[in-house]
Known about the structure:
The structure holds two protein chains of two kinds.
Chain A: H1 27-31, H2 37-56, H3 60-64, H4 67-82, H5 87-115, H6 128-134, H7 162-167, H8 170-192, H9 194-208, H10 217-241, H11 243-246, H12 249-269, H13 282-298, H14 314-322, H15 324-345, H16 354-362, H17 364-383, H18 385-390
Helix pairs in contact in A: 2-4, 2-14, 2-15, 4-8, 4-10, 4-13, 5-8, 5-15, 8-9, 8-10, 9-10, 9-13, 10-13, 12-13, 15-17
Chain B: H1 2-11, H2 15-45, H3 66-69, E1 74-76, E2 83-85, E3 91-97, H4 104-114, E4 119-123, H5 125-130, H6 132-140, E5 144-147, H7 160-178, E6 180-182, E7 184-185, H8 200-209, E8 213-215, H9 231-238, E9 246-251, H10 258-273, E10 277-278, H11 281-284, E11 291-293, H12 296-348, E12 363-369, H13 376-384, E13 390-397, H14 403-409, E14 415-420, H15 425-435, E15 440-444, E16 449-450, H16 454-459, E17 467-476, H17 482-505, E18 515-519, H18 520-525, H19 536-546, E19 550-561, H20 567-587, H21 596-619, H22 621-633, H23 636-660, H24 671-695, H25 701-712
Parallel strand pairs in B: 3-4, 3-9, 3-10, 4-5, 7-8, 12-13, 12-15, 13-14, 17-19
Antiparallel strand pairs in B: 1-2, 1-8, 6-11, 15-18, 16-19, 17-18
Amino acid sequence: xxxxxxxxxxxxxxxxxxxxxxxxxxxxxxxxxxxxxxxxxxxxxxxxxxxxxxxxxxxxxxxxxxxxxxxxxxxxxxxxxxxxxxxxxxxxxxxxxxxxxxxxxxxxxxxxxxxxxxxxxxxxxxxxxxxxxxxxxxxxxxxxxxxxxxxxxxxxxxxxxxxxxxxxxxxxxxxxxxxxxxxxxxxxxxxxxxxxxxxxxxxxxxxxxxxxxxxxxxxxxxxxxxxxxxxxxxxxxxxxxxxxxxxxxxxxxxxxxxxxxxxxxxxxxxxxxxxxxxxxxxxxxxxxxxxxxxxxxxxxxxxxxxxxxxxxxxxxxxxxxxxxxxxxxxxxxxxxxxxxxxxxxxxxxxxxxxxxxxxxxxxxxxxxxxxxxxxxxxxxxxxxxxxxxxxxxxxxxxxxxx
Amino acid sequence: xxxxxxxxxxxxxxxxxxxxxxxxxxxxxxxxxxxxxxxxxxxxxxxxxxxxxxxxxxxxxxxxxxxxxxxxxxxxxxxxxxxxxxxxxxxxxxxxxxxxxxxxxxxxxxxxxxxxxxxxxxxxxxxxxxxxxxxxxxxxxxxxxxxxxxxxxxxxxxxxxxxxxxxxxxxxxxxxxxxxxxxxxxxxxxxxxxxxxxxxxxxxxxxxxxxxxxxxxxxxxxxxxxxxxxxxxxxxxxxxxxxxxxxxxxxxxxxxxxxxxxxxxxxxxxxxxxxxxxxxxxxxxxxxxxxxxxxxxxxxxxxxxxxxxxxxxxxxxxxxxxxxxxxxxxxxxxxxxxxxxxxxxxxxxxxxxxxxxxxxxxxxxxxxxxxxxxxxxxxxxxxxxxxxxxxxxxxxxxxxxxxxxxxxxxxxxxxxxxxxxxxxxxxxxxxxxxxxxxxxxxxxxxxxxxxxxxxxxxxxxxxxxxxxxxxxxxxxxxxxxxxxxxxxxxxxxxxxxxxxxxxxxxxxxxxxxxxxxxxxxxxxxxxxxxxxxxxxxxxxxxxxxxxxxxxxxxxxxxxxxxxxxxxxxxxxxxxxxxxxxxxxxxxxxxxxxxxxxxxxxxxxxxxxxxxxxxxxxxxxxxxxxxxxxxxxxxxxxxxxxxxxxxxxxxxxxxxxxxxxxxxxxxxxxxxxxxxxxxxxxxxxxxxxxxxxxxxxxxxxxxxxxxxxxxxxxxxxxxxxxxxxxxxxxxxxx
Lengths: 402, 733
């Protein structure tokens, strides 16, 4: 899809890592012998923030730390680093590492859906052959996969909206795939015209994310996501290319603060169903995330190891980075299974009194919070190793050391 | 002095520092949090916070029992009952809603007292909390109190939890104000029983379940006095038909109630003449009183609540005055600076302007240095490139990094090196003065770089024999970082606005240590540099003023310095400056009552400097407290507009200062962020100085100085951190 000849800088690096056994076991390690632990820490924080947000639903978390923007910026930076090699190989490597964990996830979700009696050809939104065709997105996330808005009943094991919740995070994979595919082009454009390329996604968001121009359906969602987070992705490229380092710090920080202030102001006047949750306000999300990421990358200290008090989080940061895709894919399903597990508690004899029920009711989310972490651990143990297989490494159960 | 203290730090390792670090943040932030809490409490009882002004439109009434719709105004739904009562003939119960109001309620009470009438006051919790004395007077006068919720929401919009809270909070206020609870209730926006609908009836039932009797008005005795129809019309509306008894609805709060008072003054005697009795509700119904006394914990909780509300009202009033003062100071200062600096610039830039005959005599340049190995060579070379005849004296204050050897190795005949054991900057400067051959003395720092014209421009004002000292124009070299850009803005404004203003007002408080010139005779008359304060430059400048000399600003004498790069370094530098300034002002306080030039400085300069540098920053946090309050609790739009207004004024001043100095405007992009991060840092530092001054008053200077530096001094082992070298490079005052 992307013209291979646009990448000409690489020479001497094997085009296909499979032909180079030295680099095959750990491609990432081969690209970057020393990981930047600052970026790793940011990715871990972003993941935890996503889980907390989906658990508690506090809108202010999206303002406190714009996780998705940060994750796309980190991915963009790594992508720019890899694109020193021929583009086609890099894209193939990225896609190959993304898909197997998705397949495992899709297999479980589809099994549950079909067991629940879902027939995609009879879906009210897009039934028939089109509905069946869209199932391909569970295998290659070029678009959003179809799912029933309601399946089973509320009295069942899970809420009837479980499919919506579970498939929700898949938009990130679609957007990621689009960005990976577009990266060679973006990098080419960036090197020719850095500033227009950097700011174009914000401009595009102002057009397609504000109702000025509405692209209907799933294409519209995809284009909007691409625009909203494109700025962050290109920022990642810019970070790797050293553009940010050329701008005096006072300029970049002051300007991004102004941009973020604009984002907040825009959000205040365009609140979505969840109020200040930036996810529902494209322009606010784009500007706030962009400014936030500029500041994070501007002060990027490039740690070889976590300093001071952060050092004790080292193993967790390593683990969450090695299993980022697994954690991200499965976290919503895990959150819903905490509900299923906690609902069993009401059946315990000593918790049947009215007082105990009320106490459980009022502390429900707290128990969900405590339960979701061991479940995440179980998910890592159960399916995390697929990430290693996808990256052509030896599978490891609990990769918490580098 | 910094050099000395740095050395001391090496002797006394960081123990006390770690202990003190939280205090300097804790105390100011506690004060701020307390102020914020008081502000919020006040906003809460003034219905600025948590107020809900929605009113539900009328709805169907098919679920309201007929006996209620057709029944009397006293509705009893306690314990599942559905009963209503009407008043006996010739009995009138006056009810007043929404009070107590400080203006109108006393007038209503006076009229009632005059005619010996009793009534029922349905008070809101907020008003009762704010005016407890009026509630007390109502009870003492024999009136009954009913609840009218805490802050007057339409209860049909509220949850049961909120209704419970409205009731209990109101009872709390009532018990604090008058030591009673009541069992009477009137829902906001209610009228007569026939107007009960499907929305309000469930609320009434719930209120009954909580043990309250709901009291509405009679069908045709609602005065609607809030529409201000005129006293005669009010009387007409509330007069019942025939001899019927009735509950009359009036308001003693919520606007001008003069018509209500006027109507009462005719209505009461007229009806009494007709044989009507004005009783409170339970008297009229021959029922036991609705009041129950509160004792014990409940009473004290109520009293504490009322006390807190009163305190918050008073504190807020003080804060608002403070905000007005600081607003006036900030804006007044900016305007004054604009006017006076424009005047100064016009004067010294006038084509024919001369201080006096051109000064061409040679000058001694003193460079006190402590561990300046990295920069001393640059400093000395920049001096050698100068256009004015000079001798250079480098005073090495016991450096451990070979500063003196570096200078000696340069092998320059114009440069002399004087060594001393580490004794501090004032001592080094005094030693330099003693070794200087010439009568004009320029002082600079070991890490400052002069332009070729700097020395010449700096000494030209000495052509005027009245000038005793000259301040140069220090500029920030490292201005690309955020903290550097902020300091750059601050320096440009400080040198081009503040200093010009002080020059015109003849009360320049500080010659910057980085670039200043003195007449030897002036220095000798005031006894040279002193180490009495942490800011020897401010101290000596004030002393020279008091001796009758003029101290002026030479805008073209530019010196390039490196500003602190970290918050920690900046903090310690500013702590020394602000504390040193306070010490210097205190040291020269007697100038206030002196005669002659010293008295002039004491009565004009000292108050001005104290106001702008010590008092104004103390009030500055109020801006942020009110900003946060306004942002969160509204009016958000107006708060932001006001903030931008002040920012715009600042930006205009800054732009003018940049233009005067011919600086590029790009750095002004960091001005908004400076206003929400840097300014706060500066006043927290000043607060800390205040705390030290107030708590450490009995400590000796020595000890104080050590405290300041232990906190302040950057790691002495890193010579590249040149920011600890004394109270130098002061942009302001």
